[in-house]
Design goal:
alpha/beta; 6-stranded mixed sheet; 5-stranded antiparallel sheet; 15 strands; elongated
């Protein structure tokens, strides 16, 4: 079952500017879904539409199996979110910030202590939010989003601007919320290297179109498919000639010959032929494209 599903979601800010073009997101129930793309790709616009902050133009949005437009209040009661910058009262403590929202949500006062404990801010006392570190502010924002005990959490770039320790804190917190409280999390980012340590599923958007959607394992398999084998020898031209005689195509890059991934038996055969033909083989190595490279490749190919 999908917690969030959009079909042909399209949005234009002007007649000639299509921001989203037939977006079909499928966020599984119980997943941590990473919504990735370069700045300006359409991530925040998509999240605003899902939350009803922008009026939908074309396509459908279903959350918890129900259409957003006819069940908006019911859906939003079970949804927590942070879109762009955290909205905090700098002159108030963490508890005072939460007390204001507690009255809006009409949730039990005991929930304030619960969420402060969850995000690790229970001991901040009378310290004003304006004096919090950026990481503490982000955790307070997440606490505010958790007040109504949501089943779905939507976060727009929650680690933006954080130092490595702050990023780690937020990452571990989100993992805990997902595993212990079974909250489905949709998180946007432009940093694949960071998001891959957190998510179970991915959607990659570029120029308003989804260019990849699937599990993290599927993206890793794509990584394996695009790996290559590098031969470092004393004669790249002769190496390439011998490979050609064996119907193996390759390219010379930085004095090394790179070929597509092949069976280990073929690698051994090529190595023997190189040595028998007087070519000195210094190194044979597998070159794996990292996931960041795959992300860049996908976005470059997108039209």
């Amino acid at each position: 079952m999908y917690c969030i599903e959009t079909k042909n979601l399209t949005h234009k800010f002007s007649a000639g500017e299509t921001v989203l073009d037939k977006i079909n997101l499928q966020v599984p129930q119980g997943s941590i879904y990473g919504f990735l793309g370069p700045n300006g790709a359409g991530k925040t616009t998509t999240l605003r539409l899902i939350l009803g902050l922008l009026r939908k133009q074309d396509g459908t949005i279903e959350i918890f199996g129900k259409k957003l437009e006819s069940n908006r209040i019911e859906i939003l009661k079970k949804t927590g979110s942070i879109i762009e910058s955290p909205s905090l009262y700098a002159h108030l403590t963490a508890r005072e910030n939460l007390t204001i929202l507690q009255k809006v949500y009409q949730c039990p006062k005991s929930r304030i202590d619960e969420v402060l404990q969850i995000v690790g801010l229970a001991e901040t006392g009378k310290k004003k939010a304006g004096k919090f570190s950026l990481g503490m502010k982000q955790r307070l924002s997440i606490a505010m989003a958790l007040l109504p005990s949501p089943e779905l959490l939507i976060l727009d770039e929650p680690t933006n601007g954080l130092d490595p320790n702050g990023i780690l804190e937020i990452r571990e917190l989100l993992k805990k919320l997902n595993s212990e409280q079974k909250i489905t999390i949709l998180i946007s980012s432009h940093l694949l290297s960071e998001i891959e340590k957190l998510v179970t599923h991915l959607g990659i958007i570029h120029k308003g179109s989804v260019v990849f959607q699937g599990t993290l394992d599927e993206l890793h398999r794509k990584q394996h498919q695009t790996s290559s084998i590098s031969f470092y020898t004393n004669n790249a031209e002769k190496t390439l000639e011998i490979f050609g005689a064996n119907n193996v195509s390759g390219t010379i890059l930085k004095e090394q010959v790179s070929i597509a991934t092949i069976d280990k038996e073929v690698v051994a055969k090529l190595n023997v032929q190189l040595v028998n033909n007087g070519v000195e083989v210094y190194q044979i190595s597998i070159v794996k494209n990292d996931l960041e490279s795959i992300f860049m490749d996908l976005t470059k190919k997108a039209i």
